[in-house]
C-alpha cells in the first residue's frame, strides 16, 4: 500500500522537494511501524524505473495511494500534468464520504510557495494542517527547508503532515482507482479542454496559451517503407509515430519518451509525421509554439520523406530544435553511421547551419541521452520564449541595428 503520492511541479526546487520526500518517507515508516525498505510514498523521478512506461506508472500510484499531497506553488497550477494528477485522484474520490464539506477525501494541500491565486477547484478544498508557524503561512514549506534557523519548525511541520498521512491510512481509503485509462487524454483540473483537432484535422491554437505547446514532428519510415529500403523493420510500425529506435531492450516508441520530458516541463505536446511538417511550423510561428523535429536518418532514404525534408530545408523558416537518433544498440545504423551522417547533411544541411549547438543534436545514441538532450533543449527554448518571445533562433551578431544612445548637446 502507498501511504501518499507527492504531486509537484518540477523545476529549480527539485532537490528541496526530494529532501522533503525522503524525510517524509522516513517519518511515515517510523509512525506506521514498517521496515526501512518498504515503499510508502511515490515521487515520479524517484519511483519510476528506467524505461518504465511513465504515464501508466503514475496512474498505478494514484490508483492505490491513501493520500494525495499537492505541493501548492505558482508553477503547480500552471502545470497540466499536475492538473491531470489532481483530476485523476479527484475522480477516484468521487462518491467517497468526506469528513467535512467541500473536501476531497485524502487530498492534503501543502503550501510550497504561496501562489497569488488558486483555480476554482483548489479554492473549494478546505484543509487546515494546524501549523502555527507564521513563516510557513507567509512563505511556504520551501522557506522552512532553505533556512537553517527554521529547522525546528520544519521538523514540527514534518511530524504534523506525517500524523495526517498515517491517520488517513488507518481509515477507509477512497475506492481503488481504475488502472485502465489514458493519462495523456485526461483533462487537467486546472485548465480548459485538452487541445484537439478540429474537423479538418488542424489544431485549434486558441485553446492553449502562447509557448505552452510543443509540436513534435517525427521523420521516420513505416514498417513497409523500411522493408522497401532493406532496413531492419523491427524498429517501426504501421505509422511513423510508432518508431522505437532503442528497441528491443526499450521497445517504447520515441514519442513516449518525448512526451514524458515535455510533460515534466509543463508543456502540452502533439505529434505528427513529417508529411505535416510545413503545417506545424506555420501554426507554431503564428502562436509562438515550439517545434522539435525528431529524425531517423533512414527516413532520408525514403523518397517521399526526403522530398519533404529537402523542401523544408530550402526555406528560411526552420524548427526550434532537431534531434537525430542513431541508436548505439542498432547494429545496422552503426554500420552505416558515416553514410547516414552524410545523408543528413545533404538533406538538412541548411538547418544544421542555422541551429546552434544547444538546439541541434546530430547523434543521439541512447534513450537516457535522448531524455537529457531533450530536457536541455526544452529548458533553453523556454528561456528564449521568456527573453525575446520567440524560440526559433537568436539573431547572430551583426544582424540587427545597435541600440540608440542619447548624447548630450
TrEMBL record:
Superkingdom: Bacteria
Domain called TIR: residue spans: 4-145
Pfam families for this protein: TIR_2
Protein name: TIR-like protein FxsC
Source organism (scientific name): Dactylosporangium vinaceum
Lineage: Bacteria, Bacillati, Actinomycetota, Actinomycetes, Micromonosporales
